[in-house]
């Protein structure tokens, strides 16, 4: 018995010693706060375990992980998450400068390897230099105001009118409905795809792809990364088939795929390869699917909890419907007049923190507040804390759309809900139009109340694990 106890104590001591040595080795590996050449210090912080760093704690604790380290180290600290040595910045002014600094200042997109692998090497959020200008130019051509007015908004209106039909008298899972809505709306605009076997197959693969982008890049069967990469392979195959069929038909179509295939034919811009077109389409579907569906769901949740805001929103949309026949679509001018709707969308994005931050990678040593961030590190521009800054947003944990009407918050130098600098979200206006049109038909057709107990998780992504259920009645 005594011998067994002695062995157990020895094992425990051995494990503790080995763990301490591994943690110490990882700190030494990254300079223990000081560059090897002695030129400047790294910000304070810890690097965790070799290879995994502090990823497990980060994914489990989420915002608490950031808050604890901010209290200990300040607004600028180092860590190792998602496979990368990373400096987290919570300083609003420093974040603004990082976003504006761009490539000339030694910063390029620095998204985790899992996201780069799964979204493709031509993903607009990851490329830089001339390729970024080409890809961004192609995307801006698809979502420019003229396209929104003449082509996209009429399609969005017709889709939303049909998608929201027949909800009265039933219990609806808003999360499931808005995810379906976001995907089908995107597919209709991109390639004229309607609900059916193809959209169902695309949805299945997209769900796996999304989870894979926020996982560790461990390519073993059963891991989220492996499943996400397999989903990408299947999506690429489906899109390749669509492109081949479109080319063989020779028929002109009024959609994004046709515009991309014809892009460059007139010599005004560089022609895209099929690989670039596919990565651009995956990025369009991915970004719109997550942001639009989650924002729409959370807007319904916040409006349910705040009847005064719902009354004001409904008043705005009933005024727009005055003088229109039941089947008459909203116009571009109607959309531009939706001041309170925009305020609701902005407040939803802020309070729900649909996007936690942005990642940049250093291409050279970068100075930040007297610290030196080595080449090859990531900088996490963590915007979540800015969303809850009481100096920018008084009473920040309260849903208050009116704050966006009292002063032009979007012109504030630290407004980062849609990114910043040359990386401002190109699809911002189209995404806003989709959510606004959804809200238009939802609040003018229906009244609703939440059904049962609905739980909302806000990290690592905003979701309702068991759905967000509402009982819907005609208004």
From TrEMBL:
The pathway is: Hormone biosynthesis; Steroid biosynthesis; Plant hormone biosynthesis; brassinosteroid biosynthesis
Q: What's any GO biological process attached to this entry? A: brassinosteroid biosynthetic process
Gene3D superfamilies, alphabetized:
Cytochrome P450
Question: Is Zinc one of the keywords?
Answer: no
Catalyzed reaction equations: 6-deoxoteasterone + reduced [NADPH--hemoprotein reductase] + O2 = 6alpha-hydroxyteasterone + oxidized [NADPH--hemoprotein reductase] + H2O + H(+); 3-dehydro-6-deoxoteasterone + 2 reduced [NADPH--hemoprotein reductase] + 2 O2 = 3-dehydroteasterone + 2 oxidized [NADPH--hemoprotein reductase] + 3 H2O + 2 H(+); 6alpha-hydroxytyphasterol + reduced [NADPH--hemoprotein reductase] + O2 = typhasterol + oxidized [NADPH--hemoprotein reductase] + 2 H2O + H(+); 3-dehydro-6alpha-hydroxyteasterone + reduced [NADPH--hemoprotein reductase] + O2 = 3-dehydroteasterone + oxidized [NADPH--hemoprotein reductase] + 2 H2O + H(+)
Q: Signal sequence span per UniProt?
A: 1-18
Sorted alphabetically, the keyword list is: Heme, Iron, Membrane, Metal-binding, Monooxygenase, Oxidoreductase, Signal, Transmembrane, Transmembrane helix
Q: Which PROSITE patterns does this one have?
A: CYTOCHROME_P450
Pfam name, any one: p450
Q: Required co-factor?
A: heme
Any one Gene Ontology molecular-function term assigned to this protein's record: heme binding
GO cellular component term of the entry, any: membrane
CDD domains for this protein: CYP90-like
User: InterPro entries under this entry?
Assistant: Cyt_P450, Cyt_P450_CS, Cyt_P450_E_grp-IV, Cyt_P450_sf
Membrane topology value = Single-pass membrane protein
Annotated heme binding sites: 425
Family from the record: Belongs to the cytochrome P450 family.
Q: What is this protein called?
A: Cytochrome P450 85A1
Which organism encodes this protein? Triticum urartu (Red wild einkorn)
* Gene name in the database record: LOC125534977
């Amino acid at each position: 018995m005594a011998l067994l106890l002695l062995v157990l104590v020895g094992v425990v001591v051995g494990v503790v010693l080995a763990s301490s040595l591994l943690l110490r080795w990882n700190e030494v590996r990254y300079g223990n706060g000081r560059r090897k050449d002695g030129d400047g210090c790294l910000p304070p912080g810890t690097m965790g375990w070799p290879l995994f760093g502090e990823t497990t704690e980060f994914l489990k604790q989420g915002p608490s992980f950031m808050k604890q380290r901010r209290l200990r180290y300040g607004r600028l600290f180092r860590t190792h998450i998602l496979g990368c040595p990373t400096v987290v910045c919570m300083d609003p002014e420093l974040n603004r400068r990082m976003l504006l600094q761009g490539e000339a200042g030694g910063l390029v997109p620095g998204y985790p390897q899992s996201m780069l692998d799964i979204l493709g090497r031509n993903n607009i959020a990851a490329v830089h230099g001339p390729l970024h200008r080409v890809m961004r130019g192609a995307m801006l051509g698809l979502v420019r105001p003229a396209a929104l007015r003449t082509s996209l908004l009429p399609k969005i209106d017709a889709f939303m009118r049909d998608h929201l039909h027949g909800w009265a008298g039933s219990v609806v899972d808003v999360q499931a409905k808005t995810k379906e809505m976001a995907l089908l709306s995107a597919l209709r605009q991109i390639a004229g795809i309607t609900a059916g076997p193809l959209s169902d197959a695309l949805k299945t693969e997209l769900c796996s792809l999304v989870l894979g982008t926020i996982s560790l890049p461990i390519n073993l069967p059963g891991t989220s990364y492996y499943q996400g990469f397999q989903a990408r392979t299947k999506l690429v195959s489906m899109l390749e088939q669509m492109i081949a069929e479109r080319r063989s038909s020779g028929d002109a179509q009024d959609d994004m795929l046709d515009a991309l295939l014809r892009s460059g034919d007139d010599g005004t811009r560089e022609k895209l390869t099929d690989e670039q077109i596919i990565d651009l389409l995956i990025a369009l579907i991915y970004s719109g699917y997550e942001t639009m569906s989650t924002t729409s769901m959370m807007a319904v949740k916040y409006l349910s909890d705040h009847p005064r805001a719902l009354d004001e929103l409904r008043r705005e949309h009933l005024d727009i419907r005055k003088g229109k026949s039941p089947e008459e679509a909203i116009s571009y001018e109607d959309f531009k007049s939706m001041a309170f709707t925009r305020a609701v969308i902005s407040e939803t994005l802020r309070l729900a923190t649909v996007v936690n931050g942005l990642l940049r990678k250093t291409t050279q040593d970068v100075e930040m507040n007297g610290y030196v961030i080595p080449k090859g590190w990531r900088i996490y521009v963590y915007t979540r804390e800015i969303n809850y800054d009481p100096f920018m947003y008084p009473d920040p944990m309260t849903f208050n759309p009116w704050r966006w009407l009292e002063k032009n918050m979007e012109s504030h130098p630290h407004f980062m809900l849609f990114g910043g600098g040359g990386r401002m979200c190109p699809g911002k206006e189209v995404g806003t139009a989709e959510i606004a049109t959804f809200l238009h038909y939802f609040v003018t057709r229906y009244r609703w109340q939440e059904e049962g107990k609905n739980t909302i998780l806000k990290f690592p992504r905003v979701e309702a694990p068991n759905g967000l259920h509402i009982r819907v009645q005609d208004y």
